[in-house]
Write a structure and sequence with these properties.
It contains 24 helices and no strands. The chain is an all-alpha fold.
Length: about 450
């Protein structure tokens, strides 16, 4: 109740979450006057403009969960007719939250009211298909656009290319590139990034993937006039960057000051692919190319370099990369320490666990703190330790508890199971707290509908 009241910005009103019951005020046996007063007390929006504001606030705060559907259902209960802006905002929120079913539900509702989605709405639908690795659906959306005579734009093909790339559909990506080239559109950095992503996700991995990654990075330097940003005014107004629309791995860092050098997008995707594929040779070749181009690795590239070394078991090289970064005088960021900690825990060697804990201690000494997702990922990784004193997992749990942050259910469950496997008294305060947290999260989330 407090959550949605803060989101809507109406301190004198509140919204009941679906879990607490819906607002069936019309069926209440109370007198009409009492119903009216109760409605005013519990309602949080009275017209389409206010509802649109609530949807935009939920999206801006990235609190998607089930709230967008709740708001839409409340509009229906209140008899408020959604407009085109309402549906655009709902589809935008569904895209940002990677909620595929919700995105298509809102689109169907939109069409049932006689409103044909515009090209920006279709772009977001294709984008969410990419987030969910559903390339077939993305291709069908392009066909639907032709049916409704909605003219695709360059951005549409870019979304489709990267949606197919996310699913590893390399043949389809090549076909889209050929069509774009035949139409005289040229290829920009996001096209080459998509080609590298398709290589990385292709199953089985092509034999020549390493040479192809190097080739695409080289060819990406031949950007044409088409390289000018294709961001539309509507995307800018709604806070959608091209990196987010095309599902680049850098999307969440775009607005981090000093974190990314955006012209290096193709390098970002290539380094990220090398880290995932555990290919140190290609990663180091890319580093040499970057130096020859007279450019320096930004923070994101440094992090991917660390990931690559750590994923390959080269813990010392990962530590060395961090130390060189810190000596360069550039400002440290918490991700440097969390990446080192998570990578050092691979294999759960005594040395690796010590390095992981020291990285977290150094991070804490700099007054950095773990975000909920970071803490969840680290706790889930640390909870897999079968031997040793479980000190790293305990330290991560304590860091999160100190800030009153609760990890997500999978991490809490893994940590709880790890504690039970050790000789800990049943009344141990830590075990009791973790058990209570696990039971609370299980009761809240295990029965929810999947999206």
């Amino acid at each position: 109740m407090t959550l949605l009241r803060s989101i809507s910005g109406a301190s004198h009103r509140s919204l009941l979450l679906r879990a607490l019951g819906r607002r069936h005020l019309a069926s209440a046996p109370a007198p009409a006057t009492a119903q009216t007063e109760e409605y005013k007390r519990r309602n949080y929006a009275n017209n389409v403009t206010e509802y649109n504001g609530v949807v935009n606030s939920i999206t801006a705060q990235r609190r998607f969960s089930f709230l967008l559907r709740d708001v839409y259902d409340d509009m229906s209960l209140d008899g408020v007719q959604p407009d085109r802006d309402t549906f655009h905002s709902l589809i935008l929120g569904s895209m940002k939250g990677a909620r595929l079913q919700d995105a298509f539900y809102f689109t169907e509702q939109m069409k049932s009211m006689g409103l044909v989605p515009d090209v920006n709405s279709y772009n977001m639908l294709i984008s969410v298909c990419g987030k969910c690795k559903n390339s077939e659906q993305a291709i069908q959306i392009l066909e639907e656009m032709k049916k409704y005579k909605v003219k695709p734009m360059v951005q549409t093909y870019m979304c489709l290319l990267n949606a197919c790339a996310a699913a590893g559909r390399l043949d389809q990506v090549y076909a889209i590139v050929r069509d774009m080239t035949a139409a005289g559109l040229g290829l920009n950095k996001f096209c080459y990034a998509g080609l590298i992503t398709a290589l990385r996700n292709k199953t089985p991995l092509p034999d020549d993937y390493a040479a192809k990654i190097i080739e695409f990075v080289e060819r990406s330097k031949e950007w044409s006039s088409v390289e000018a940003s294709s961001e539309t005014a509507q995307n800018v107004m709604t806070g959608v960057t091209e990196e987010e629309l095309y599902n680049m791995p850098t999307a969440e860092y775009v607005n981090r000051r000093g974190f990314l050098n955006r012209p290096l997008t193709v390098y970002h995707v290539a380094f990220h692919a090398c880290a995932d594929l555990r290919n140190v040779e290609v990663m180091e070749a890319l580093s040499d190319m970057l130096k020859k181009d007279g450019k320096y690795p930004d923070t994101y590239i440094v992090i991917q370099t660390m990931r690559c070394y750590l994923n390959c078991g080269h813990i010392d090289r990962g530590v060395q990369t961090l130390e060189e970064y810190l000596k360069s005088g550039r400002p440290p960021v918490p991700e440097l320490y969390t990446i080192l900690a998570e990578g050092a825990m691979i294999g759960y060697t005594p040395k690796g666990m010590q390095i992981a804990q020291k990285a977290l201690e150094d991070m804490n000494s700099r007054n950095f703190y773990l975000l909920p997702r970071q803490g969840t990922d680290l706790l889930l990784a640390a909870a897999g330790e079968k031997t040793g004193g479980y000190t790293t997992a305990n330290y991560i749990w304590d860091l999160m508890q100190a800030r009153k942050v609760t990890p997500q259910l999978p991490a809490v469950e893994a940590y709880y199971n790890g504690l039970k496997e050790r000789e800990i008294p049943a009344d141990d305060p830590r075990l009791v707290l973790v058990k209570r947290t696990y039971e609370n999260l299980s009761s809240r989330f295990r029965g929810r509908r999947p999206n």
